[in-house]
Specification:
This protein is α+β, with helices and mostly antiparallel strands and about 525 residues long. The protein is built from 13 helices and 19 strands. A hairpin with an 8-residue loop joins strand 12 and strand 13.
Length: about 525
């Protein structure tokens, strides 16, 4: 990141970042004993909700009270380690270093130019975006800049490189809100530093989604609509640990400006959330957000695992995906559409070799993000355009009841639609010389031909389930193949198919070898 800030001592460099010029007024923060002073942008004019949840920055907190020496700011709050907290949470707000009078804080050595554990780098400053972050970590920025640099956004935001969007050469100053006159890239950086340091996001599912907005408003974000209502009302707003940073980055003065600005990348808030959501949370999660994901190494493998299909239509990752869904559902059978797996060449293989510029990776190691990418479409160096969520991977898992005849009917329709169905819990053979609706020759379960009158529980994603009236066939609905049956449709609780794949890999004997492709056989395969 370009910067006009001199790279002097750690303390002076950090304090110089807090100089703000607005019109002819130069606001200079008092140089106190704390090396990470409160960020007080000029013109901050937030009003306190009922109960005084937010106020202007206190002027007496730099030294730190006896209880204010915790690295996160102790009982004070926004960076000041003592009284005078701008956000009254009963706990520290962001990036607070040890207060001078504190009894528990350790000395902050980041920025002194000497690399000391747990530092990964130390370039004599606390500026993120220059390869060595404000916390003296380099692995995250290496992954962000070299692996996610061409990643673009889903989530209805503007497209553009996610790393450059926050840290890049765009040095425009903010013209509205409490951070008037401050470089947009600096406000974006400050917000991201806070979210990472405070670890305040709300995690969802099996290493799936993080609601970073909890760092703004500390309510339950499992219901987004309800949360937004609470968080845009002064009477019900509960400030999160990075509340003031979110307000600055929204480039507005009102609580309602935050949800309005989060999807606009011409605002510091939109740029920050794009980097967090598309890069950190999906691609570089092990380097950038390891605290949110306990199983960063999902599995180990002996060789590449690929979606490349053989002549019969079977693939290694297709079989493993079907196995994962069958195991999660506890069903007799699982059926998976081929497009439920990533369709971009960049994420169609779990490679044995470590991915370049990913410090968390190693030969034979499968990271959570890599397993997720084979399903959901996020991955390194995508070649077919923006990093898009793969809708076909499904958002929920169901079990439904099929008769043996319905299994024959469903598997037959894949040929009409030009698709492939991966399976677990059965094998089948087909003949390409037969009519499209009659190509399935035989279906076996446990080596025995199935009874067409028997019933079986089948695991399917919500992408493949439809209305019961369609009778259990794979039918096109708006171009989307849908497997349906008329009885016993039941959601599998607490299972999301895409992240569930990585969880399943972690349960297998390690290391994992490529599975034999022996579930689908064919004659006249080229027809």
């Amino acid at each position: 990141m370009q910067s006009s800030i001199p790279k002097e001592t750690a303390a002076s460099a950090r304090r110089l970042r807090r100089l703000r010029l607005t019109g002819a007024t130069l606001t200079v923060l008092v140089l106190g004993a704390c090396t990470d002073d409160a960020i007080v942008y000029p013109n901050r004019n937030l009003t306190a909700p009922a109960g005084g949840a937010m106020s202007t920055a206190g002027s007496s907190g730099d030294a730190g009270a006896a209880t204010g020496g915790a690295p996160s700011g102790g009982s004070g709050g926004l960076n000041n380690g003592g009284g005078g907290s701008p956000i009254a949470l009963g706990g520290g707000d962001d990036l607070g270093d040890a207060g001078a009078a504190g009894t528990t804080g350790a000395p902050d050595q980041c920025g002194d130019g000497v690399v000391e554990p747990p530092e990964e780098c130390d370039d004599k400053n606390k500026i993120s975006g220059d390869g060595c972050s404000a916390a003296c970590k380099s692995s995250c920025e290496t992954c962000e800049s070299k692996v996610c640099s061409l990643d673009t956004i889903d989530f209805n935001m503007d497209s553009g490189p996610s790393f450059a969007g926050c840290y890049g050469p765009n040095q425009a100053t903010i013209t509205t809100g409490p951070a008037v006159g401050v470089l947009r890239t600096q406000v974006c950086s400050d917000l991201i530093d806070c979210v990472r340091h405070e670890k305040c996001g709300q995690r969802f599912g099996d290493s799936e989604d993080v609601r970073f907005l909890r760092c703004w408003c500390d309510v339950d974000w499992s219901n987004i609509g309800t949360a937004v209502q609470k968080c845009t009302n002064d009477a019900t707003f509960v400030p999160g640990k990075c509340a003031s940073r979110f307000q600055d980055a929204s480039e507005g003065d009102a609580l309602a400006d935050i949800p309005k600005s989060q999807q606009s990348t011409n605002k510091a808030l939109g740029a920050a959330l794009r980097l967090l959501q598309t890069c950190d949370e999906r691609v570089c999660v092990e380097e950038c957000l390891p605290e949110y994901f306990t199983d960063v190494t999902v599995a180990t493998i002996t060789a590449d695992l690929s979606t490349t299909r053989n002549a019969a239509g079977e693939s290694q990752l297709g079989d493993l995906t079907a196995d994962a869904q069958r195991a999660a559902a506890g069903s007799d059978i699982a059926i998976v559409l081929d497009t439920a797996l990533c369709q971009d060449p960049a994420c169609q293989t779990l490679t044995f070799s470590a991915t370049p510029n990913r410090p968390a990776d190693a030969d034979g190691r499968v990271l959570w993000s890599e397993a997720y990418a084979t399903q959901d479409g996020y991955g390194e160096g995508l070649t077919s355009g923006p990093a898009q969520h793969n809708q076909a991977s499904g958002g929920a898992l169901f079990t439904e009841t099929f008769t043996g005849q319905q299994l024959y009917d469903a598997l037959n329709q894949q040929f009409t639609l030009g698709r492939v169905l991966y399976v677990s819990g059965l094998t089948y053979s087909w003949d390409g010389a037969q009519p499209l609706g009659a190509r399935i020759v035989e279906i076996r379960k446990d080596g025995t031909p199935i009874d067409k009158a028997a019933t079986f529980s089948v695991a399917l994603t919500d992408f493949l389930t439809g209305t019961p009236s369609t009778g259990g066939l794979l039918v096109p609905q708006g171009g989307v193949p849908t497997l349906t049956v008329g009885t016993d449709r039941t959601v599998v609780p607490n299972v999301s198919p895409a992240p569930g794949f990585g969880k399943y890999l972690s349960t297998l004997p390690q290391p994992i070898s490529p599975p034999d492709l022996n579930r689908i056989t064919c004659t006249n395969c080229g027809n």
